[in-house]
Design brief:
The protein is an alpha+beta fold and 116 residues long. The chain has 5 helices and 4 strands. The protein has a 4-stranded mixed β-sheet, sandwiched between helices. It starts with a strand and ends with a helix.
Length: 116
C-alpha cells in the first residue's frame, strides 16, 4: 500500500498523485494540512525517510525565514514546530510499508513505485 502526504495546492504534489494513480489503485491520500501529523506519526515517517526533522523543512518559505531560520532546536522541538506549521514540510512525501521518500522529483517517485 502506498500513502502520499499531499498538498493539493502544490504542483509537485499534484503531479506525484497523478503518477501514483496511473501506477496503482491501492493508495491512500493524506492531506496533511487538514489532517495534521501527530508527534508519533511524524516521528515514524522521519524514521522511514531516514532524515532528521530539519532535513524536511522548506527553508525557502518566508514563514520559516521570518520565524525559525535562526533557531537552534532539538529534533523533538523541530517536530513540534513542523506539526504546528505543516506548510513548512517538504512535499509530497510518499511511503510504502518499509520506506518513505520526498518525491519532488520523478526519479524518487519511480523508485518507490518500483518498490511497491
Amino acid at each position: 500500500m502506498i500513502t502520499i502526504y499531499h498538498n493539493p495546492r502544490c504542483s509537485k504534489s499534484r503531479l506525484a498523485l497523478e503518477q501514483i494513480k496511473k501506477y496503482t489503485t491501492e493508495f491512500t491520500v493524506v492531506e496533511y494540512l487538514t489532517n495534521p501529523f501527530t508527534e508519533q506519526s511524524l516521528g515514524l515517517l522521519l524514521k522511514k525517510l531516514g532524515l532528521k526533522p530539519q532535513e524536511i523543512i522548506r527553508i525557502n518559505e518566508v514563514h520559516f525565514k521570518e520565524k525559525f531560520a535562526w533557531k537552534i532546536c532539538t529534533n523533538e522541538e523541530w517536530i513540534k514546530i513542523l506539526i504546528e506549521n505543516p506548510k513548512l514540510i517538504q512535499r509530497p512525501i510518499v511511503e510504502n510499508s518499509s520506506r518513505a521518500w520526498i518525491a519532488r522529483e520523478t526519479d524518487s517517485l519511480n523508485q518507490i513505485l518500483g518498490n511497491k
